[in-house]
């Protein structure tokens, strides 16, 4: 028996890759019919994005919830902004879609509600991707990793084995995190950094090897 195709709204009219991801999911097995976008900044100023209508801002969520629409959180600018949008979606009683590219091997991988996993992501065994986390294109997530809620793993990031990424942490494109390192909640790792030691909660680190720009540093 075929699963029903569900109506879907994308919250955040800025990142086109999500629409491409939905297309890949539908090509494997039709699952979503995209009605359009909601965007607080563009509503009333722009009418469309990627060929689909901008139907309003967050105030329109409840109307579409009544119609049975799912929502996708397409806000990735900061993890705090993503968390705020998720709270607004959940407060309206909406259901959040979980999007995983169909080519990803999810054997031994647990993916939380509302997470977005893009094309080309490679997972090892015994991996947890938290609720509303984002794993962008080409990331390598090795065995025994734990990615917290609302965390952002940028394109081309490599997480070696037994890495813990705290809730709301942001790891920029191309960064490498050594095995058994903890990336603290709400911390930021700059693009291209090589992290060889733990990063404190709320810290900002960058460089090769990564050094603190703000907050707690890293060490072997």
Précis, in short:
The chain has 220 residues and is of the alpha/beta class.
Q: Could you name the ranges where pLDDT drops below 50 across 5 or more consecutive residues?
A: none
Determine and state the CATH class of the largest domain: Mainly Beta
Count up the helices.
Answer: 3
CATH architecture title of the largest domain:
3 Solenoid
- Strand tally is 24
Structural domain tally: 2
Order of helices and strands: EHEEEHEHEEEEEEEEEEEEEEEEEEE
Oligomer: single chain
Topology:
Layout: E1 6-11, H1 17-28, E2 32-38, E3 48-49, E4 52-53, H2 61-66, E5 70-73, H3 79-91, E6 95-96, E7 99-100, E8 109-111, E9 116-117, E10 122-123, E11 127-129, E12 134-135, E13 140-141, E14 146-147, E15 152-153, E16 158-159, E17 164-165, E18 170-171, E19 176-177, E20 182-183, E21 188-189, E22 194-195, E23 204-206, E24 211-214
Overview of the molecule:
The longest helix is centred in the middle third of the chain and has 13 residues, at 79-91. The strands form 5 sheets. The protein has an 8-stranded mixed beta sheet with strand order 7-9-12-15-18-21-23-24, covered by helices on one side. It has 3 helices and 24 strands. The protein has 2 domains: 6-97, Rossmann fold, CATH 3.40.50; 99-207, Hexapeptide repeat proteins (UDP N-Acetylglucosamine Acyltransferase, domain 1, 3 Solenoid), CATH 2.160.10.10. The chain is α/β, with parallel strands linked by helices. The model has no long low-confidence stretch (mean pLDDT 94). Strand 1, helix 1 (17-28) and strand 2 (32-38) form a beta-alpha-beta unit.
